[in-house]
Amino acid sequence: IPPKAGINRLAVVINGDPDTVFMNVDYGMDGLTRSKGSNPVPLYEVTTHTLVQEGQLYGFKDWAIDYWGEDTVHSTAEAKQILGDSANIANDDNSLQKVLKIARFILFRTAGKEGMPSEELSRMHPLKQLNYVEADKSKLWCGNFSSIFSFLAASAGLPVRMVSCGLSEGRYATGIHVFCEVFIKEEQSWVYVDLTSRNLLVRYNKKWLNVVDIQRLLRYPVQDTSFKAWHYEKDSLYETPFYKVADLAEYYFYPNAVFTFYYGDFIKIMNPGNLFRRGEKFFYTKPYYALYSDNSKLVNNDFYLRLITNYLLGFLLLYGLFKITKGFYR
């Protein structure tokens, strides 16, 4: 689509759909390479600013992690105290300010404690994980950072979702890396937050980026100072060109990477608190997560296999109980 000169935002109607989709052309990857003289062909690329279109696929409320269950009520007061007294969050702070303050608080409290966590750490409530690490009883790594950040962000009223990536694809074998994205309501965008790398709120010019945006931009090894991140170093957060601090992202976000976006009820379903919740998990008919990849072919085999096997096992169990009961009454 060749837009007119100076036009960086388009309103597009697709196949007569009544809803208008707004798309950006201000940070397209082809445009980035052309600006550096790497591609003289006059191509144009339109990219959306987020994977989620409210009302079309899933809204942010479907993705936002729901921590508010019977197992976390006791921690509400502690979370409020941390956010107000330690993180210094004020009532009039916007979403970006809250993210920066929460991230700085966590990184300051866990500085120098990065490493292989103990086995029991991941089974703890996020605030207990933080206290356990502060007491030098365990190291912490990406899953712990993401759990602690997502809980405090949710407690501050920020929709936050868990994302992971890292599969063996061809000559790449990476292991699994976990991080977060926060929905910034003022920008209507999901924005990348990775405390393991001490990077958050990555942007290109004035556009805040999600993980897929970042993955696509990293395909072009351009040292562009407009591609920035907030980075934590020496007890402070400051903006720096992302290429200077992107080692972890470059390692995991290769072109064939598969990203797993966890739905908001994932934690409650995967950690049932009682027998009823265990049964709900066993017969849960919704997917726990969505997969996304630019280059890899994705299928739903695991989802359908879970449904078929769980319901088949449930049927066999009921049938067995019926036969046993029938035998007793003969």
Report on this model:
Helices cover 35% and strands 17% of the residues. The radius of gyration is 23 Å and the shape is globular. The protein is an alpha+beta fold and 330 residues long. It contains eleven helices and eleven strands. The protein has helices spanning 29-35, 60-63, 76-86, 95-109, 126-134, 142-155, 211-217, 247-252, 266-270, 275-282, 301-328, and strands at residues 9-12, 21-24, 160-165, 177-184, 189-194, 199-204, 207-208, 227-233, 236-241, 259-262, 289-292. Strands 3, 4, 5, 6, 7, 8, 9, 10 and 11 form a nine-stranded antiparallel sheet that branches. The chain has a two-stranded antiparallel ribbon with strand order 1-2. A hairpin with a 4-residue loop joins strand 4 and strand 5.
